[in-house]
Each structure stands twice: as structure tokens, then as C-alpha cells.
Write a structure and sequence with these properties.
mainly alpha; 0% strand; 78% helix
Amino acid sequence: MVHAILSVSVILFSVIDIIGSIPLIINMKEEGVKINPGVVTGSAGLIMICFLFFGVSILSLFGLEITSFALAGSLIIFFIGLEMTLGIRFFRSDGDEGEAGSIVPLAFPLIAGAGTLTTILSLKTEYGYTSIMVGIIINLIIVYVTLRSMPWLSKKMSPQVITTLRKVFGIILIAIAFQMMKDNLLA
């Protein structure tokens, strides 16, 4: 059981990639987007747990296949990558929305995006629900701690480092989006 939980946790950690999202989150905070770590973590957790138990049913209710869902998520990731790399704004906030960035684009699609959700669905073929649930909870704790540490992290990183990391991770996000598109178009 411990081995299964560790495997699931590492797989989800690599797909969620909260560490790689740090430059985007710092950028969003600098642009005045309000991010509530509890709302982000809770929303992402709810989405992941719902998909664990009802993902295939939810998609089939709308007549969707997992590949179509993954393609839609890859487009969102692509636009986020463009924002980071080129400085173009696609996701806008009116300012009256409270935690404007907490659910979209942070909880979904960055943390509980198409990659994470399709991974959760595929983990069900190899691991039990308990192992997957514990793996999700471990990753949500890591996400929450990382989000709570954003003020400290942004102070420790110079503006040049943040700008460089934002552009590098923007290109990586674009590459991930293209990889997801390729994998799902050829599936």
C-alpha cells in the first residue's frame, strides 16, 4: 500500500507540477490577481476527487471522450504559455470577482487540468481508490504550502529571475500543450 501511495503521489506531483507553476503564480500576483490558497486547493481537490469517482460518467454525459477533454485542456495550457512568454493577456479579471485567479486558471486547468484528470482516470486501472485519494491529498498539501509560501518566494527571487523563469516555463507549457495535442490527436 505504501509503495502504491508513493507511486501515485510522484506521478501526480510530476503532472501537477506546482513547482513549475511558481513563475506564473508570482506573475499573476504581481498583476494584482487575488489568489486564495484555500480556494485554489479546495477547488482543485474537489475537481480531482469528482473525476476520480465520476470522471468517465461526467464526460460521457456530455458525449465527450477523454481525448477531447485533454485537447480542450491543452488549448488552455497553450494560451497560458503564450501569456507567460509573450506578455499577451487572455485571462482577464474585472477586479470585482474576489479570488479572480483562484479557480480559473489556477485550480483549473493548471493544478486540476486535463493532464491531471486524465492521469487520475488512468491511475484507476493500476491502483486502488484509497491509494489515489491519499496521493491526491498529499499533492494538495504540497500545493497549499507552495501557494502560502508565494509572498516569501517572490521576495527571494529577483525580478530578472522571475522574468526569465516565466518565459522559460511559458515555453515549457506551450511544449506540454503541443505534446498533449499530439498524443490525443494520434490516440
